[in-house]
């Protein structure tokens, strides 16, 4: 079939043509937007799940909802070992730019811009990490507001002023944070405290974070009350009916149809993981000679889709690991055969490698920092990428 008409989108963070299986989350956030704009108390949100389940796509979708409601929005992607002060300043500048041109009181807008500039300029030089952003506003930086150098206090003041400005327009502010688990412990504690204070004021500002499965545990470790501060949403693989919709609806828009056996095989190949669904559907479309798409078309395309995942999705992550970390992951892969959630005890990993657990801590910690494994419970580890254990079992050392 014509590859130009191929409707599937197997790209990182690319929205699929049919966002199947996420209707509940979208509706829940619609309620949040309505309640916050009406001055009613509401919690911020945290999305968590494995890589490839569509967290970033959902995060962007929720942001689009806020934009349609005329909210001011900004988005950042957290990075290890980088302060969130400057990225948040950039995101809040974007949010206020969306609101500023609609605000009738230019003095109010300038006052906030001055506070934002003061907040940004408190970024330590060693926290800039190559970022050369300077607040693009002509106003003089404010003094005595959001410029103390204490991130928690400064965030509270910055968020409060941003919420006041949005409240004048009967809308809100949304800060969207991807890879939230990579925020340092101190910064995360400050962010939680600021969210806590803002929520107590019923201010029209929400934070929506997305991260790996252990993000709720990371938040709980930073602030004990974070368990009640956020609404937690687990983003998982698609159920069979949602997977079928993700496949059929885009195809039907091009007058192309799937045989039932082809849908069965695609679900078996992908386990309903959204990124895999898009990758296999894209390859199957390109190999199918005509509609309807058959199970034979899927079989022909599957090796190409698998090879692409091996290089781009699995291989690129494997190459980032050191030899010691690869040895640790291979032991995890062998132990994880038949384990439903893929979690394996760290003590068993050490036993398999005939090593003391303490001697493997650097390898485990390095893998966690690189986002290749996570520890949702003390004494266990699991891969952040679905099917990664299967990939490692087919790869030689």
UniProtKB/TrEMBL annotation:
A GO term for molecular function? electron transfer activity
Keywords assigned by UniProt, alphabetized: Heme, Iron, Metal-binding
| Keyword Metal-binding on entry | yes
The record's SUPFAM superfamilies line, in alphabetical order, gives: P-loop containing nucleoside triphosphate hydrolases
Tell me the domain of life: Bacteria
Show where the Cytochrome c domain sits. Answer: 167-318
State the residue spans of region: Disordered: 1-23
InterPro entries referenced in this protein's UniProt entry, alphabetically: AAA_16, Cyt_c-like_dom, P-loop_NTPase
Quote the protein name from its UniProt record.
ATPase
């Amino acid at each position: 079939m014509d590859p130009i008409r191929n409707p599937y989108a197997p790209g990182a963070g690319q929205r699929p043509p049919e966002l199947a299986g996420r209707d509940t989350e979208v509706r829940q956030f619609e309620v949040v937007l309505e309640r916050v704009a009406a001055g009613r108390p509401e919690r911020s949100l945290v999305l968590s799940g494995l890589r490839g389940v569509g967290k970033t796509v959902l995060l962007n979708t929720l942001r689009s909802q806020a934009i349609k409601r005329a909210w001011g929005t900004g988005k950042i992607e957290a990075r290890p070992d980088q302060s969130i002060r400057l990225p948040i300043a950039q995101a809040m500048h974007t949010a206020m730019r969306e609101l500023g041109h609609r605000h009738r009181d230019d003095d109010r807008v300038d006052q906030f811009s001055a506070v934002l500039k003061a907040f940004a300029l408190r970024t330590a030089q060693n926290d800039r990490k190559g970022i050369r952003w300077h607040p693009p506003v002509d106003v003089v930086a404010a003094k005595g507001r959001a410029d103390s150098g204490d991130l928690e206090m400064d965030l509270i003041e910055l968020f409060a002023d941003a919420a006041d400005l949005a409240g004048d327009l009967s809308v809100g502010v949304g800060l969207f944070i991807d890879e939230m688990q990579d925020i340092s412990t101190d910064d995360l504690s400050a962010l939680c405290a600021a969210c806590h204070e803002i929520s107590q004021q019923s201010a029209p500002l929400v934070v929506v974070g997305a991260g790996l499965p252990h993000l709720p545990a990371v938040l709980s470790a930073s602030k004990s009350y974070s368990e009640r501060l956020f609404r937690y949403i687990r983003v998982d693989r698609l159920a069979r009916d949602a997977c079928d919709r993700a496949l059929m609806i885009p195809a039907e828009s091009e007058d192309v149809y799937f045989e039932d056996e082809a849908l069965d095989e695609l679900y078996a190949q992908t386990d309903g993981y959204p990124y895999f669904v898009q990758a296999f559907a894209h390859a199957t479309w390109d190999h199918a000679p005509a509609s309807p798409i058959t199970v034979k078309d899927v079989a022909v395309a599957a090796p190409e889709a698998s090879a692409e995942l091996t290089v781009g999705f699995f291989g690129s992550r494997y190459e980032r690991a050191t030899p010691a970390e690869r040895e640790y992951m291979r032991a995890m892969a062998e132990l994880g055969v038949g384990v439903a959630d893929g979690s394996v005890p760290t003590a068993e990993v050490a036993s398999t490698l005939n090593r003391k657990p303490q001697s493997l801590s650097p390898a485990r910690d390095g893998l966690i920092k690189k986002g290749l494994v996570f520890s949702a419970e003390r004494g266990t580890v699991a891969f952040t990428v679905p099917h990664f254990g299967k990939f490692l079992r087919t790869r030689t050392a």
